[in-house]
Amino acid sequence: MTAETITTAADIRINARWVIPIEPASVILENHALILQGSRILALLPQDEADRDYRTRETIDLPDHVVMPGLINMHGHAAMSLFRGMADDLPLMTWLNDHIWPAEHQFIGEQFIADGTQLAMAEMLRTGTTTFSDMYFFPEIVAQAAHDVGMRAQVCFPLIDFPTAWGSGPEEYLRKGADLIEVWKDDEYITPAIGPHAPYTVSDGPLGDALALSEATGARIQIHLHETAFEVTDAVEKFGQRPTARIEEKGLLGPRTQCVHMTQIDDSDIERLTTSGAHVIHCPESNLKLASGFCPVQKLMDHGINVAIGTDGAASNNDLDLFGELRSAAMVAKAVAGDAAALSAHQALAMATINGARALGREHDLGSLVPGKLADIIAIDLSDPFLQPVYDPASHLVYSNHARAVSHSWIHGVPQLQEGKLTRIDVADLMLRVNDWRDRIRQYQAQ
Ligand SMILES: CSC[C@H]1O[C@@H](n2cnc3c(O)ncnc32)[C@H](O)[C@@H]1O
Ligand SMILES: [Zn+2]
């Protein structure tokens, strides 16, 4: 008598040389298969067991590749990619006051946001990001652009004391922001959120309104906080309080809050972050380039604070390559801690995946390759000489990775990158629009 084999039908099977599932932590699986059904992961198992148990519509063989969850870029200003390289080698406030804000005044509008966001998404997808967080003007255009491409995004509407192309001031921003939350609140790709720009640009009234909106809707709050020494000393002078203390006093520091930058922090700030359950979004390259300061990542993690990672905008980074950001993060963490063991490769990979999912409140369905979670997956081809030989694939991803090795991605089970080619963005057409913006911005600079 022959034993009857019962097989399960599924959509896609990905055979990978290595799988880093992120959960459980620090595990590397060899010669495993991921089985996808629709938008979700159905199974992760050894390839010989997959041969026996599953029949799939499509099989993708990745014999030299690492497969892992898609990266989560937790802070950026996507459309600012059109300002990449426009104003370099400047400290934050000069960069903003003398260059970026005047340029934004001149150029920001719906088409700029649509084109700039698509440029940023092309770069992020090409370099392994599947979810990004954005804080910029015309968030309704950003949300639609991400939805059209099929990228997951937390879209923070901006809240700032002064008028911009998007509105006349805080009252209008909050009204439009509440509409954004209402429109997208049940979407699987887009998560609307509230983006008070910074403690030095948002006064007490709008901060209180932001809190009320967050409490009424459950929307997350993302804020630039403790970016520079000037911000801290200026706050102490004006308000008699460090920025974190003021934000806590206004009720804004809690488990729905994402604090971006957090350089120049002392033990009182760490205590406030720890007790509040707020998340830190580390942006090492922007902090380095603007000479803003250092975030003590290992110390924060040792206190149990969730630290995720972001690139910030391409105008202060000047790229959106999250693997490059991880390399910088690991290097800086070791130097800041005076400890070569600080922010190991596995901790860094967790920072760009499960920690991001936690900050988003999406740990249950994003950030790791666990059956039942959403199929947001990337593959990195390690066969090139610059990634050989392989002793430890996690090490290569963080310390040796070149963005061009990212070969495949799927978001919600849908292919976004195949053999290094974007499937849902017409890059040639996008470049025509980008070149047009470059010509206009150059002309403005020459005036
Ligand atoms: C209110 S929308 C976003 C606003 O923030 C500006 N911005 C970009 N990068 C930074 C940064 O590192 N710190 C502070 N503000 C930043 C951007 O130009 C928009 O005006
Ligand atoms: Zn920023």
UniProtKB/TrEMBL annotation:
Enzyme nomenclature, EC number: 3.5.4.28, 3.5.4.31
Keywords assigned by UniProt, alphabetized: Hydrolase, Metal-binding, Zinc
Cofactor mode of binding and number, as noted: Binds 1 zinc ion per subunit.
Catalytic activity, reaction form: S-adenosyl-L-homocysteine + H2O + H(+) = S-inosyl-L-homocysteine + NH4(+); S-methyl-5'-thioadenosine + H2O + H(+) = S-methyl-5'-thioinosine + NH4(+)
CDD domains: ATZ_TRZ_like
EC supergroup of this enzyme: hydrolase
Cofactor: Zn(2+)
Superkingdom of source: Bacteria
Binding locations of substrate: E104, H197, E227, D312
Domain (Amidohydrolase-related): residue spans on this chain: 66-413
Record-level Gene Ontology MF annotations: 5'-methylthioadenosine deaminase activity; metal ion binding; S-adenosylhomocysteine deaminase activity
Positions that bind Zn(2+): H75, H77, H224, D312
Role of this protein: Catalyzes the deamination of 5-methylthioadenosine and S-adenosyl-L-homocysteine into 5-methylthioinosine and S-inosyl-L-homocysteine, respectively. Is also able to deaminate adenosine.
Alphabetical list of HAMAP family matching this protein: MTA_SAH_deamin
Family of the protein in this entry: Belongs to the metallo-dependent hydrolases superfamily. MTA/SAH deaminase family. Belongs to the metallo-dependent hydrolases superfamily. ATZ/TRZ family.
Protein name according to UniProt: 5-methylthioadenosine/S-adenosylhomocysteine deaminase
Taxonomic lineage: Bacteria, Pseudomonadati, Pseudomonadota, Gammaproteobacteria, Pseudomonadales
